[in-house]
Amino acid sequence: MHEQSLVRSLLKQVETLRCEYDGGCVSEVRVEKGPLSGVESFLLSGAFELLSKGTAAEDAILVIDEVPLMAKCKLCSRDFEINNFVFRCPVCSGNVKVTRGDEFHLISVSFSDEPIKNERAPGVGESEQASIRTAEEWDREANVDSSADSCLIFKRDGN
Amino acid sequence: MTITRTITVRRDVAAESKADAGVERARLGRRGTLVVNLLSSPGAGKTSLLEATAKCLGDERSMAVLVGDLETDRDAQRLSPLVPTAQLTTGGACHLELPLVRRGLQAIGDPRVDFLFIENVGNLVCPASHDLGEHLRIVLVSTTEGDDKPGKYPKMFRKSDAIVVTKLDLLPHVPFSVEAVVGDARRIQPDLDVLQACALDGTGIRNWCDYLISERAKRLAEFE
Which residue, A33, B6, B84, B204, could crosslink A110 as a Cys pair with Cβ 3.0–4.6 Å? Predict the structure, then answer.
């Protein structure tokens, strides 16, 4: 379920890049995720489809590259792939340092010169234009979600 | 014809929230507060462990608790007679995130305490992926939930510093092997510290408190 908050961060970064590079319609967003990232591809795609609506990435294809879980042995310095989540060197049984596979990275964003859907809509008004969210708006939305009026307070006397 | 441009970046999607958690970790670390993120499946005994911890530490060390649940203030009702407590209700979200933790901390006046415990939502999946600015991450496994959990939820155990086996008093009555759970967990995280406790009869609670005191000294040294 935390995929939604990650997709909000992802879309915010995409929007920042779009402004930075004066990009148009976003046609592809490519990400890389490892087995230790805690990100589920199916949930990620669903969240992307849902949350990109009304943004410049609405029609973008989300490409998810899965990377292997790699480690380096702290004793013998061998590099190897971790299988079945056994974090021990297969040769000397030494403890390991994970070198790849716990990341969730934005790799690239592709822009096309197609007009953004919202902009080409007939009779488009200011309110519809505003549905293309800026980085600040993503921040605001994330803040609303995570700080809903849900904090009950109990204090011990004297504190 | 459509012209396409591709900008290659390679950026950590969670970079901002990770940096944010780092700022909070440093702020609380500098003033001597060890932040402990307590994780487990529902009903493993996080609140009971905190009650026993509050009674054991008593006036020796100060502590505050932020307790996360989907609904109700039941855990805060239990803990608030003992220590400053804020209940964080997520309204359905399966884990805590830093903005809500910050609000809870402000709600109890951002107290200068030795230990700030964040009792996360009972869940061995999503909370593993969220850095709340903690210095120490503890995962509880109760004897009643079975000794096969580490292998099923590897990320949680990989990302933790210590495991506390709880409900030790029930060990004679349930098919649970401490050796098996520790072996399974250390296959995933060889550096895991292991503690055992029973909040009801007090077994292991002094040892757990001593562990917290020693980890506080060790982990906050870098912020001095």
Answer: B6
